[in-house]
Amino acid sequence: MSTFTSEIFQTETMTVPGGTETILRGGRDLFPLLPDALHGVRRIGVLGWGPQGRAQAQNLRDSLAGTEVTVSVGLRPGSASADDARTHGFTEDNGTLGDWLAVAAESDLVILLIADAALAAEHEKIFAVLKPGATIGLSHGFLLGHLKAIGSGFPAGHPVIAVCPKGMGDSVRRLYQQGATVNGAGINASIAVHADPDGHATDRALAWSVGLGSPYTFATTLQDEYRSDIVGERAILLGAVHGLVEALYRQFRLDGADPVTAYERSTESITGPIARTISRSGLPAVRAALSEAEQELFDRAYSVSYGPAREIVAEIYDEVAEGTELRSVILAEQRLTSRPMSRIGGSTMWSHSAEVHTRRGTTPAAIDPLTAGLFLATMMAQVDEFADRGHAWSEIVNESIIEAVDSLLPYMHARDVAYMVDNCSRTARLGTRRWGPRFQAAYEQIALPAVDTPADPTLIKGFLDNPAHEALAAAAELRPSVDISVA
């Protein structure tokens, strides 16, 4: 689904390679339309208080302030998150905090933001208490994949919608708060309408997205969303970038660089100047910023790493599509009930993070051509794989490029890549642990040893002429004039 219509909001058409897509431009000026767009929803129940639950509950509450729509939070008995929810204004006394099943039973829109594995295990309890005709809301298609795998489905008679922010929960909240002074600041989101028995599901999804502060909303399907989202986490958004900086750091150290310089040329180059250049000027601008000699190295690095990266992205996609990756998450969650998940930042490179950060004011990082070639080859491998699998261009550029450079990489720059991995969702953490080492091995064993091989002109032309640049430029016109603050 790349088109939609609305009874309430004025939509726009965005030109993308091969056609057009419908989008909705967000903004606080649309908040007065939200109650009508929700079509009878007077109580929204947000189940869960993880990063997305915390952000979405607060954003929706703030956007709907002064209306007759109440936003409440539902938590399981004994939840360690209850005190934090109270601190942020959701309390039993004002009727906005309660038992998860009780909140589900009294809500007209039930947004399911508990952990993926927990949702797979507990969804039947939630479905059993829903009001007749209550709308089921998701921010991830994981549950659809699980239901398909077990031969089940969503309960009949209930609208099923998804609003999927293209960034982590902290970004969703932080940019919303920054948007108090910059209309439209936020994280882009996709919507999906999986079931629409009353004919109002699309408007409800759009209202939810606008209420989160999304600068622009585009359409997808629930199946396409969970495939692109889970693959992206394991590839360029987290898994691949972690494997890449580990491999590059080792390579630079072998070439004689001191630890701080090796960190700057690998991690700092990606999270700083490469990410900023892509965000503001697009992918070809990274190569254009290099000298002629550096472009030659970029081309060689791109040529030897695109193929191995594309193979892994395709393998991940196949495993997500056939359910193997989802089952591995559920099995891993079952094992983790008896022991905590280990942290990923154990290599020596991360001990130099603080020193690198203190040098930023005196020695700003530059675009390293070797790093840039490997990183952009991996990013384009994901872009091309998604395009070949039939994803809409809005989804491709958001899941492969915009989410990376405008949400995740800024946080990695402020903390570090390993910190980011260890503080994201459990599903993403598990996927990064599984696939990050695969990418690292491909760079170390296949790409880097062959980096002196002459560049493949066909691959470089494919990069420079890729239709993704047109799609990204169209999306960039909707970008708010504010960068995320991660202080």
TrEMBL record:
<dbReference type="GO" id="GO:0004455">
    <property type="term" value="F:ketol-acid reductoisomerase activity"/>
</dbReference>
<dbReference type="InterPro" id="IPR008927">
    <property type="entry name" value="6-PGluconate_DH-like_C_sf"/>
</dbReference>
<dbReference type="GO" id="GO:0016853">
    <property type="term" value="F:isomerase activity"/>
</dbReference>
<feature type="binding site">
    <location>
        <position position="233"/>
    </location>
    <ligand>
        <name>Mg(2+) 1</name>
    </ligand>
</feature>
<dbReference type="GO" id="GO:0009097">
    <property type="term" value="P:isoleucine biosynthetic process"/>
</dbReference>
<protein>
    <recommendedName>
        <fullName>Acetohydroxy-acid isomeroreductase</fullName>
    </recommendedName>
</protein>
<dbReference type="InterPro" id="IPR013116">
    <property type="entry name" value="KARI_N"/>
</dbReference>
<keyword id="KW-0100">Branched-chain amino acid biosynthesis</keyword>
<keyword id="KW-0413">Isomerase</keyword>
<dbReference type="InterPro" id="IPR036291">
    <property type="entry name" value="NAD(P)-bd_dom_sf"/>
</dbReference>
<keyword id="KW-0560">Oxidoreductase</keyword>
<feature type="binding site">
    <location>
        <position position="229"/>
    </location>
    <ligand>
        <name>Mg(2+) 1</name>
    </ligand>
</feature>
<dbReference type="InterPro" id="IPR000506">
    <property type="entry name" value="KARI_C"/>
</dbReference>
<comment type="similarity">
    <text>Belongs to the ketol-acid reductoisomerase family.</text>
</comment>
<keyword id="KW-0479">Metal-binding</keyword>
<dbReference type="GO" id="GO:0009099">
    <property type="term" value="P:L-valine biosynthetic process"/>
</dbReference>
<comment type="pathway">
    <text>Amino-acid biosynthesis; L-valine biosynthesis; L-valine from pyruvate: step 2/4.</text>
</comment>
<dbReference type="Pfam" id="PF01450">
    <property type="entry name" value="KARI_C"/>
</dbReference>
<keyword id="KW-0028">Amino-acid biosynthesis</keyword>
<dbReference type="InterPro" id="IPR013023">
    <property type="entry name" value="KARI"/>
</dbReference>
<feature type="domain" description="KARI C-terminal knotted">
    <location>
        <begin position="221"/>
        <end position="363"/>
    </location>
</feature>
<feature type="binding site">
    <location>
        <position position="229"/>
    </location>
    <ligand>
        <name>Mg(2+) 2</name>
    </ligand>
</feature>
<dbReference type="Pfam" id="PF07991">
    <property type="entry name" value="KARI_N"/>
</dbReference>
<dbReference type="InterPro" id="IPR013328">
    <property type="entry name" value="6PGD_dom2"/>
</dbReference>
<feature type="domain" description="KARI N-terminal Rossmann">
    <location>
        <begin position="24"/>
        <end position="220"/>
    </location>
</feature>
<dbReference type="GO" id="GO:0046872">
    <property type="term" value="F:metal ion binding"/>
</dbReference>
<keyword id="KW-0460">Magnesium</keyword>
<comment type="pathway">
    <text>Amino-acid biosynthesis; L-isoleucine biosynthesis; L-isoleucine from 2-oxobutanoate: step 2/4.</text>
</comment>
